[in-house]
## 1
Amino acid sequence: MTEREHLERDLRSLGPTVAWPPTPDVASRLELSPRRRRALVAAVALAVVALAAAFAVPQSRSAILRFFHLRGVSVERVGTLPRAQELPLAAGLGSPVDDAGALSVLGGPFLPAVHGTLYGRDGIVSTLLRGPVLLSEFGAPEFLKKFVTSNVEWVDVAPGVQGLWISGAPHVVFFFPGASPRLAGNVLVWATDTRTFRLEGRDLGRNDALRLAREIMGTSKG
Amino acid sequence: MRRARRGDERAFAELVRMHQEIAYRIAYLISGDEGEDAVQDGVLKAWRALGRFRPGAPFRPWLLRIVANEARNRRRSSGRRAALALRAEREDVSGGAAPSPEAAVLAADERERLLSALEGLPDDARLVLACRYLLELSETETAAALGVRRGTVKSRASRALERLRESYD
């Protein structure tokens, strides 16, 4: 046996003695309730790597029931929500920006074309719609992290455009990297290839949210 | 496989269950503590990409390629080199029964020394040897996991063995 063959044999014999960490049972996580399964499939449709480090939260939230992504949005189901403030919808949205400013942040014009005052902060452009409903758009893929105990439902916003409808109990959102978490009301998030949209309103209903989203997407086609 | 491709999640989960251990270990080798998230997201991406899976092709290298890609992306985004925590077990791995002939080849302290030498290699060399010998992947599977050609696996493994021999002697 050559020296190299000896070394190969020794390496092979090392294999069974390595103390690997326990393998997570990802297969069982696929075999979940129908609703959760659909949410997971939805997540994959637009899966991205979440910038978890930017939204560091205490490790003590041990009851995380796994998570899913929708482009820029990472949603984690948890047993207990992290502590968060209740703030007005318009709090902390940043400074007013004009259409050119929004375009440079988003890589395309803010939708809908007709809109109220725009506010920009950290790559997110927002405006308040009647309701009040907060519409936020972001072009960069990693921005939002949500913790929910409430309902999450997979919805078709438009042909080929899928979204998540989060409703029921308020959930916690880390809206900007490094910002304090706040409680959020009902939310519809959806994403295209280049942009993520988010509508939020405490009294926002599922059908109204979808109608609004389709109007916004309709504008995009024009 | 046919059921999985038709959208049967349970059939896909069964396939994943057969290969999740090896997939996780590769993800762990590449991205350390990010390995669990990498294997989960990789599996989800594989599920979504099943429509592009070539019928008749082997499933395992295909899955390993996707999971390993996910692990590499996570390591790049975290900006950290994976801090491996591999440790050769001092106790008998067979749980009290007679050690297997292979495990008995090296004494415990020699295993520690060899593992330490392996850990000291540059990443490319460490990964190719870990895939080929610790995980006993085929050249095809190693190529899929490392995102290189089979020929590259051969030459890289050969050079890595030489480096390991130099540092282990």
Note: Residues 206-221 of chain A form the longest helix (16 residues).
## 2
Amino acid sequence: MDLPILVENLVVRFASSRGADVRAVDGLTLRVEAGQAIGFLGPNGAGKTTAIHVMLGFIPADSGRVSLFGRDARDAAARRRIGYLPEQADAYRFLTGREWLRFTGRLCGLRGRALENRVEATLDEVDLREAADRRIATYSRGMRQRIALGQALVHEPSLLILDEPTSGLDPVARLRFRNRMAAWRAEGRTIFFSSHELSEVELVCDRVAILARGRLLAEGPPSSLVKPGERLEACFMRTVGEGGGP
Amino acid sequence: MNALAIAVVVWVDWMRRKDVYVFLVMLVAILFAVTSVDAFGLRGVALYGLDVALLLAWLFGWLLAVNAGSRELPQEESRGTVFLLLAKPMTRADLVIGKWIGAWTSVACAVALFYVAGSAVAWLRGVRFDAVVMVQALLLHAVALAILTALAVACSTRLNRDAAATLSGTISVAAFLLAHRIPELALHSRGWQGDALLVLYYVLPHLELFDIRQRVVHGFGPVGTATTASVILYGIALTATLLLAAWLAYRGKRFSRGALAE
């Protein structure tokens, strides 16, 4: 069976403002098995979002290979099984929540009754039924984050790629999000999730990958990375410190 | 199908923007004022009112086409929704074509409304014109708008909104005012300057071919079917070329978080 995510020796270079060659991702290799929840950790500027952008075909790799379900990441069909929630997610504010989900569902190939059923189910899933016919412009920040999450779920993807999904959410919304993640895992979905919230990752993920300065410093189940009596946060600080992180 | 879904959303965005309605109401008011002029009791003056109305339709259409075409793609980047769209099972060609269809059809419909309003006001003021020529004028104008929006979309694939609007606006004004005068200039130029002018003549879009306002106003009668078809085919070919260029530029574009800061 094809792996949901396979990254091999990925290198992404950028030219810095001084013209120097900067490796945003440096030889990253990662295998994500079906049904796993993997936390993608790293300090700011570690290359997490860049790696995710290459996975989704927004930027090309300078070398190495990325495949999603065995297909090239730039192949539109490969993205049919993926739900993506970007960092700083936004939606079309001139649409209502229901219209937004209908639009994004249509882009994923849903039509007719199936589309309407999924839109209604997703509104329930992100707790926005009451506000479904209000324009997104009138939503609070947390509601906008939920409607953006809705577009990632509307087509029932088997792989969820979430880039710092809880940033900017209040504690209640975070707790709800954590519960949702647990439910997705129970449904057998694969979750690839970047975050700064180590406690969240510790609770939800069965594997973590720690990245700093574009390099993968550690990868495996949290239990295999932490020392006895240590929390993931301490493990993270130790790993990033040893790896020459900022 | 994805391109159509995107076009529909561009439409909804247009319908829910109040500035377009304000603009339309303002133009109809100007139109009314202009066609009301009846200086010294001369009936012919109202005819020039229709001329002014059609000129306004061209100006209004040009402004909307350049603005709508250059806004759509950069807007997706500035609000970050481009990442959501490109993560869907759709191609960048779908996005470019969908944005163009949405922008062009909405501008063309706004201009058509203006033609209807202008014709109705002129008719009420006693101006009589050939309806067939008026329909031809609108059809050719719509094709010119297809070229203009495609040009603006092509510019916006690599530039931000303001730069794309400025560049596409400048090219289109230059094309409209200068392109048909280039052969005269070329006659008086020698060597490479003459060759360069001829290249420019063939490269610039010939928007003047789509402008038959004077035929409507002065009652010159309809343009022949073969000529109309040739001009429309030229417009379609030019639009397709511009959209191909837009897709080629957008296909290799690197999207990064930096886009959000623009």
Note: Chain B has a mean pLDDT of 87.
## 3
Amino acid sequence: MTMITTAFADATHDSQICFRRLLTAMSEPGTRVELDRAGHFGSLSAGCVQTLLTLADSGTRVWLSPSLSRDQAVLDNLRFHVAAPLVERASDADFAVVSQADPAACEALLQALPTGCEEYPDQGATLLIETDSLARGVEVSLSGPGIPDVRRIRLGQLPEALVRYLNKREASFPLGIDLMLVCGRELVAIPRTTRVEV
Amino acid sequence: MNTPQRKQWMSVLARASFSELQARWQALQLTSDYQVIRAPEIGLAQVRARMGATGRPFNLGDVTITRAVVRLAGGELGYSYLCGRHKPHAELAALIDALMQTRDCHELLDKELITPLAAIKAEQAEGYRREVAASKVDFFTMVRGEDE
């Protein structure tokens, strides 16, 4: 029996609403947005599901962390609703999703994800990381475009490799990866332009 | 599940006229709880053909296609794909496809809905074949004796 469940009830308008909120999150880094137009797929959180439903399609390759790629409900639903090709190697990915259950996957992943090239910086990957909270845990200060002064936010329990990566992100703009931290339906984005101090 | 059988009933549901399908469906007075997994949506498919059924394939043109997927409370998924842009038809066909997979409704639907609709379809096809056959012209040449 397949595990396919419902996604957006009204695909056109729901994805437009989610797109607008994701745009807010990306253009005002550190702002928490809520995505509430669809539920979760198996162990994949509602926030990640809606981000993928909105941004990914048959032309974007998606990499899933080990525990997600073993979950049949996640695979069936992503194939059915998103139709994105799922890739084995992170270096081929346009979107990468890391579950809370796989903090160890971050280290190798951050090395492998494509950051784009000078001619096509848009080919840098977008990394979605599930976290336990966006109100407690690791505190970071964000500054840069889209932030008036400094914005201080908390990102929950993060994998150590990610904290190290954020703290000394190479100043290689316009290359880089864009980060989205997801807790349930809530999401915070840290695009490649943002300077992070942990 | 038996795939050839399911193919056959999906084909019947897709090709039946909506008014016939709806009339028979309403007469059965079945109610069922279902979720729409993929709301009816319209798209295009390219039709390929071969000249005289033996030549090289070429693109004949595009047809509009409507598809839908529903899910019953018991987990059965019903699919439908049909030519044209009739969304209620696609949703109803998907629902009947799902119900055909349940033990409770299969026989009733098969007897009251699929079989009669298949008979109508076969009759129409037969009528068309007769109409074509009636206007068939066989060409032949008289021997005129030049070859002797």
Note: Chain B has one domain: 3-128.
